[in-house]
TrEMBL record, chain A:
Organism: Hyphococcus luteus
Family according to the record: Belongs to the bacterial ring-hydroxylating dioxygenase alpha subunit family.
Protein name per UniProt: Ring-hydroxylating oxygenase subunit alpha
Molecular function (Gene Ontology), one example: 2 iron, 2 sulfur cluster binding
Highest taxon of source: Bacteria
Key word Iron present: yes
InterPro entries, alphabetized: Rieske_2Fe-2S, Rieske_2Fe-2S_sf, Ring_hydroxy_dOase_asu_C_dom, Rng_hydr_dOase-A
Automatic annotation (TrEMBL), chain B:
Species per Swiss-Prot/TrEMBL record: Hyphococcus luteus
GO molecular function: dioxygenase activity
Protein name from the UniProt record: Ring-hydroxylating dioxygenase subunit beta
Transmembrane intervals: none
Keyword flag Oxidoreductase: yes
Length: 420, 162
């Protein structure tokens, strides 16, 4: 790339001010694919999706087709889904089991579960195929969450994850045995927006009263209480955990146990919910269990594409500069009753996806942003709360829930990665 | 076997429901439902068990009411204004289940103008399975299941009544 064409990310992303070109420019999008998704870590799958050797799911790294596949030794590999001969997709199904090996249906090349080229038909006519194994991504797994990068020498996985690890800890500890399972299937919601508008929206605590006004006016819940509350009464906070990871700490606003499962003084717990609380107390002891029962799993974004959405797991697939697919699935818990998990599935349908009570409204509002940016660049203002954010007892930046500290966390990481 | 008269009244209800949904006549649409109506749009085409699998939508009667109340607030942004749409219903097959209930299977194509944002014209295509129940001489909708051909692919906002 010539110097004149290089984009100066230090000027288009400044403290709290973002030039809207970043949502629209094809060149910037290509840079992001390379710098963020190919050279850096992003979420691809959870290992509970592929329990047995040969099990795979199709996923993308940036826009490159990959398979997340379990090998014979039980390890998770992330290998290219493009045949190294002439490039046809090896697996077309979203998920499945390849039996012992992956056979290409174009000319019959056969690959092992580690991506090695095992055999080619009529081998005498083919030569120098030693290097023709399937490209393998570098893989990092934390508590079953599988991240991948195409960079053979990436930053250390745990350094990248940073405090994201404790966010994942708080998600999986919702299970009395500390394990989650993503096998209820994924829903896919198509947004005609840049992917970053979705990241921003999900960790934005300022929009609830307006974007979700119709829900607040239709049900009795913490959402209509939040709408009525004055600025000083809102106890929830927005947190910058570093490395671009951020959280809306909703638990600070909960007034009763299992509010995150939809229970309250007005809606008492069903027997299965009480049994779940008992299981947590047994597993973790009273102190820790009380916190889990009250707080629930976090509402947090792990840079760049994983959204821990309370009892749901969400991630983004970048498709085109103006097209993003959000995938979501309920975070099912190991070691709890079937009724409890069915409850989590119903919550997922209410909150997320194209016909839920929340996301269609987020979708349409962010699509209107993306359309408006067609008119030419403007300065997006994410400075709210800059004067009052502060480091809390743990040394992390925390502020009023409506403050854009979470969005600034995302953008400061973005800038670091993009200027490098 | 159902009589010609029964078949005609079943078709009337199908078409009326479609018209109310197309025209965003929310109260009229809700008035067609039984008190225990279930409204379901599965994702998984092989094993759509709602106890273990995520659906796009799985409403019991109270959730249907919430959905309708939201649409009527005038600030359900995803449907402000309501999508102009037309659905064609065909391939209607009726099975009598018992004295008061019918299973009604049909196919549909629904053209929707996404007027709230992109102004894309989107086609929703699939099959519907209704359970109609006669309650006090009136035929009502006790269950509606909609299987989209692309339920497992990325779909745009589905905040209207499908
Ligand atoms: S393209 Fe796969 S064997 Fe030829
Ligand atoms: Fe929202």
């Amino acid at each position: 790339m010539s110097v004149q064409n290089a984009i100066d990310y230090s000027t288009i992303v400044k403290d709290g001010i973002i030039n809207s070109r970043v949502y629209k420019d094809e060149k910037i999008f290509e840079d992001e694919i390379r710098k963020i998704f190919h050279n850096g870590w992003s979420f691809v799958a959870h290992d509970s999706e592929i329990p047995n050797p040969g099990d795979y799911v199709r996923r993308s790294i940036g826009r490159e087709p990959y398979l997340v596949i379990r090998n014979r030794d039980g390890e998770v590999n992330v290998i290219s889904n493009k045949c190294t001969h002439r490039g046809t997709l090896l697996c077309q199904e979203e998920r499945g089991n390849v039996r012992g090996a992956i056979t290409c249906w174009y000319h019959g090349w056969v690959f092992g579960l580690n991506g090695d080229l095992k055999s080619v038909p009529y081998g005498a006519g083919s030569k120098d195929l030693d290097h023709k194994c399937l490209p393998k991504a570098t893989v990092g797994v934390y508590k079953g969450f599988v991240f991948a990068t195409l960079n053979p020498n990436p930053v250390d996985f745990m350094d990248y994850l940073g405090e994201g690890a404790s966010l994942i800890d708080r998600a999986v500890e919702s299970s009395p045995v500390g394990k989650i399972r993503l096998n209820a299937g994924w829903a896919k919601f198509l947004y005609k927006t840049n992917w970053k508008l979705q990241c921003e929206n999900n960790i934005d605590g300022y929009h609830v009263n307006y974007v979700h006004a119709s829900l607040a006016r239709s049900i009795e819940s913490r959402y209509n209480e939040a709408v009525l509350a004055g600025e000083d009464e809102l106890k929830t906070t927005a947190v910058d955990w570093g490395n671009g990871h951020s959280e809306l700490f909703l638990a600070a606003g909960f007034s009763s146990d299992l509010e995150w499962l939809g229970y309250s003084d007005k809606k008492p717990m069903k027997p299965f919910a009480k049994a779940y609380c008992d299981q947590l107390r047994e597993a973790y002891g009273d102190n820790r269990a009380s916190r889990i029962i009250h707080d629930g799993p976090p509402h947090a974004l792990i840079f760049p594409n994983l959204f821990l959405a309370e009892t749901n797991i969400v991630y983004y697939e970048v498709d085109q500069v103006g097209v993003t697919v959000q995938r979501h699935t309920p975070m099912l818990l190991e070691g709890v009753s079937d009724e409890m998990n069915t409850r989590i599935i119903r919550l997922c349908e209410a909150a997320l996806g194209p016909s839920s009570f929340f996301l269609p409204d987020d979708g349409v509002i962010t699509e209107r942003q993306d359309l408006a940016f067609d008119g030419g660049p403007m300065e997006i203002d994410l400075r709210r709360g800059m004067g009052r954010e502060d480091r809390n007892g743990m040394g992390v930046m925390e502020s009023h829930v409506t403050d854009e500290v979470t969005n600034r966390a995302f953008w400061s990481r973005y800038k670091e990665v993009m200027v490098a | 076997m159902v009589s010609d008269e029964e078949y005609r009244s079943i078709c009337n209800l199908l078409y009326k429901e479609a018209r109310f949904a197309d025209n965003a006549q929310y109260d009229d649409w809700e008035s067609l439902l039984t008190d225990d109506m279930e409204y379901w749009v599965p994702i998984n085409r092989e094993d759509p068990n709602p106890a273990t699998q995520l659906s796009l939508l799985y409403d019991n009667r109270s959730r249907v009411s919430t959905r309708i109340r939201m649409l009527k607030t005038g600030v359900r942004h995803a449907q402000v204004p309501p999508s102009p749409m037309t659905r064609l219903i065909s391939n209607i097959e009726v099975e009598s289940l018992n004295e008061s209930e019918y299973k009604v299977c049909s196919a549909f194509m629904l053209g929707e103008l996404q007027i709230q944002s992109t102004k894309d014209l989107h086609w929703w295509i699939g099959r519907t399975e209704h359970i109609f129940r006669r309650v006090d001489e009136t035929l009502r909708i006790a269950r509606k299941r909609v299987d989209l051909i692309n339920s497992q692919e990325a779909v745009p906002s589905l905040a209207f009544l499908i």
